[in-house]
Amino acid sequence: MTDTTSILLRNSALRRYVSAKEKIVFATRRHWARLWEPALSTAAAFVAVAWMTVAVEELAILWVAWGVLAVRLLIKWLDWRQQWFVVTNKRLIVIDGFMDQSGTFVQVDKVTDMQYRRPPLGQLLGFGEFRFESAGQDEVLNLVDYIPEPDERYRQIIAAHFLPAEKKEEPKTIFVVHDGPQRGYPAGPPSYEPPATVTQPIPVVPPHDDPPARRGHLPGGPTTSYSETRPPRPFLEGGER
After folding, report:
1. Domain-by-domain residue ranges, the chain?
2. Partner of 93 for a Cys bridge, out of 22, 105, 113, 120, CB 3.0 to 4.6 A?
3. Quick check: helix, strand or coil at residue 48?
């Protein structure tokens, strides 16, 4: 089971917007600091109403107002549970809403610039925000705030979409040229052109009646005569000499 499949199985909200064919770089909820305002408002209202009702019992009606703030905090918490920022190998996706759920995404190849910022409160509590600029006119995914572990998320986005992939060096073929064509070659014999044949004309003398010429002597060359003296054969009776 891949990481993408396991993440989708654990979170039903992501299965609506993330395809199983996509590879999830990371998927995170917003930082809990996004609930600090309704949480502080509800806590402060509780202390105030409790103090006033102890002093004046007729002010118990104020608990109704505090109940409204408590319900508001519950809705904010349920809404926060459904807020996701998902980065895949193809898209940037922001999911919002509990009762009115929506998903916004932009293709990665259309993102031209990204700005990463950690406000003072974010440096204290550990969250950051990202601003994306796309090539289109309508920047539907401009600001994504309250992202936990922002430094790690920033490095993951940069590594996945903004740094060029390292190219593997292809093996190089080395051609070795030898002196003689009879030797072996690892990549096939090179083109070999035999040397040009230089011919020298040889004079041909037609034969004539000169005996030395018939014997193969060239005109003007030395001539040699041969003579042979045979000894007389002995006379044999009944035979011939």
Report:
1. 1-30+85-164, 32-82
2. 105
3. helix
Start-end of H helices in the chain:
3-10, 12-15, 36-55, 62-81, 120-125, 150-157, 211-214
Dihedrals phi, psi of 148, to nearest 5 degrees: -75, 160
The candidate with the shortest Cα–Cα distance to 191, out of 208, 175, 207, 173, is 175
Instruction: Check: pTM over 0.70? Answer yes or no.
Output: no
Does residue 174 contact residue 164 with C-beta atoms inside 8 Å?
no
| Fold that domain 1-30+85-164 belongs to in CATH | PH-domain like (2.30.29)
Rounded to whole angstroms, the maximal C-alpha distance in the chain is: 187
Beta-carbon contacts of 140 under 8 Å, excluding residues fewer than 6 positions away, are 104, 106
Per-residue pLDDT tens over the stretch 15-34: 888 887 888 899 999 999 99
Pairing, β 127-134 against β 143-148: antiparallel
Interior/surface letters 24-50, b for 16+ CB within 10 angstroms, e for the rest: bbbbebbbebbbeebeeebeebeeebe
